[in-house]
Amino acid sequence: MDTIVLGTVALDNVKTPCGMRRDLLGGSAVHFSMAARFFTRVSLVAIVGKDFPSRHINFLKKKGVNLDSLTMDPGETFRWEGSYEGDLNSALTLHTRLGVLSTFKPFVSETQRKIGNIFLANVDPDIQEELLCRMRKPRLVGLDSMNYWINSKPKSLVKLLKRVDIYVANDQEARVLSGENNLIKAAKSLYSLGAKMVLIKKGEHGVLFYGRGFIFSLPAYPVEKVVDPTGAGDTFAGGFMGYLSSSRRIDSAAIKKALAYGTVAASFNVEDFGVSRTSRLTRADLERRLAKFKRCFSF
C-alpha cells in the first residue's frame, strides 16, 4: 500500500539544553515520512523555495520518499526557529517565516491521485481540504493540525473532521478544539465531530486513543536523554499511519500495534537533532525497541 502525505518541508533552527543547530531539514511531512517509510511507499506533497539545499532532495530520495509532487518555487523555504527549556515538552517559537508556504497550492501527480492512504499533516485546513478533494479513492485519511489553525480557522477544521478517519492532536490542542479539560471527554467530543479515531498525544506521558467502542492508553517509551523533541509528534503519526496503511484489517489489534510502532518511532526521533536519528534508523532497530517496549508490560 502507498501513502501520500501533505505537509511542510522546512529549514529549522533549534535550541535545546543539548545545543543549537541551524538549517536542519525539518517539517511535518519530512518527520512523518521518516517513520512511515518502514511500512509503506511514501509520496510527499509540499513546497520549498529556491534556497532549499539540493542535498536534502537527494537525501529524501535515497530514503525512498517519492518527490514527484514536491513543488519548487522562487522565494524562501518555510523556516521555523524554536527553543526548548525545562522538561522539553513544549517549544517556544522564536521566529516563523512562511516564505513560499504562504501561496502554496498542492500539486498531485495523476498517478498519486489514486493513492488510498492519505495523511494531512499540519498545514492550513483549506489546503488540506483542497488536497483531499483531488484524491480519487480515499481508503484511510488521517489529519493533524495545531493551535494556530484551531484558533484562526476552526470552522474549516471542524468541516474537515467530518471527512477523515483519524484525527491526531496533542493534549492542549484537543482541549482547545473540544472545549473540554478532561482528555477522555475531549476525545469523545472530537469523535462526535466526525473523526472515527481520535489520537491525543501526551508527550512524555504517552497517547490516548478513542474510537467506537474502543479506548486505549499507551505510555511513552522511556528515553533517558532527550536531545530534540521537534517532529516527535509527526514521527509518531508516521509510524501509526504507516503501519495501518500496510494492514489489511483495521481492528483493535492493528490499532494497538500501530500505536506501539508510532510510540517507538517517536522515541528514536527525540534522541538527536532534526532527522539525524531517524535517518539512521533501520526496521531491525524499530523491531528491537518494540520488543523491549512490550517487555515493559510483562508482569
Explain how this protein is built.
By secondary structure, this protein is of the alpha/beta class. The chain has one domain (2-295): Ribokinase (UDP-N-acetylmuramoyl-L-alanine:D-glutamate ligase), CATH 3.40.1190. It has 10 helices and 13 strands. The strands form 2 sheets. It has a 9-stranded mixed sheet, with helices on both faces. Strands 3-2-6-7 form a 4-stranded mixed sheet. A hairpin with a 5-residue loop joins strand 11 (197-201) and strand 12. Helix 6 crosses helix 7 and helix 9 (252-269) packs across helix 10. The longest helix is centred in the C-terminal third of the chain and has 18 residues, at 252-269. The model has no long low-confidence stretch (mean pLDDT 94).
The CATH class assignment is Alpha Beta
What is the typical, i.e. mean, pLDDT?
Answer: 94
CATH homology superfamily: Ribokinase
**Per DSSP, what share of the residues sits in E-state strands of 2 or more residues?**
25-35%
Given the structure, what is the number of helices?
A: 10
Number of domains: 1
Order of helices and strands: EEEHEHEEEEHEHHEHHEEEHHH
User: Which regions have little confidence, pLDDT < 50, spanning 5+ residues?
Assistant: none
Distance between the termini: 36 Å
Rounded Rg: 18 Å
How are the strands ordered across the major sheet?
5-4-1-8-9-10-11-12-13
What tags apply to this protein structure?
299 residues, alpha/beta, UDP-N-acetylmuramoyl-L-alanine:D-glutamate ligase, nine-stranded mixed sheet, four-stranded mixed sheet, 10 helices, 35% helix, globular
